[in-house]
Design a protein that fits this description.
Helix content: 25-40%
CATH class: Alpha Beta
CATH topology: Aspartate Aminotransferase, domain 1
Number of domains: 1
Number of strands: 6
Order of helices and strands: HEEEEHEEH
Radius of gyration: 13 Å
């Protein structure tokens, strides 16, 4: 489990600013009508690409990119509470709004290129 990076109010405010920044991009929506994993997440064409978890921005990126962020210390493993890290998900370890926006845009691009049905 990841430790909170920001207090809840600051994390929510920062995520709100991120949502505002990406809301106009093609295919981007916030949330879903389902409960549970990703219910308040940013999606592109129905697929989750970024979400707020325990004060961290969690993004979906390629396995290689996730490994790079983990190796550099810019990210921490994300396990969704299951005890096993998810190979294409990383929780950002720090950075300001600009870093969150850059990683969210990167995640949106990665997820928008994925094939197959939305789960």
């Amino acid at each position: 489990m990841i430790r909170p990076m920001l207090d809840d109010a600051e994390a929510q405010a920062r995520f709100g600013r991120l949502v505002d920044a990406v809301a106009g991009l093609e295919g981007v929506t916030l949330g879903s009508d389902r409960r549970g994993f990703g219910s308040g997440a940013l999606r592109v064409n129905g697929r989750i690409f970024a979400m707020l978890t325990a004060g961290h921005l969690v993004v979906k990126l390629s396995r290689d990119r996730v490994a790079s962020l983990l190796a550099s210390g810019d990210g921490t493993a994300f396990d969704a509470g299951k005890g096993k890290p998810m190979k294409e998900w990383v929780a950002l370890a720090g950075g300001g709004d600009d870093v969150w926006l850059a990683r969210a845009r990167e995640a949106r691009e990665f997820v928008s290129r994925l094939d197959g049905p939305v789960r």
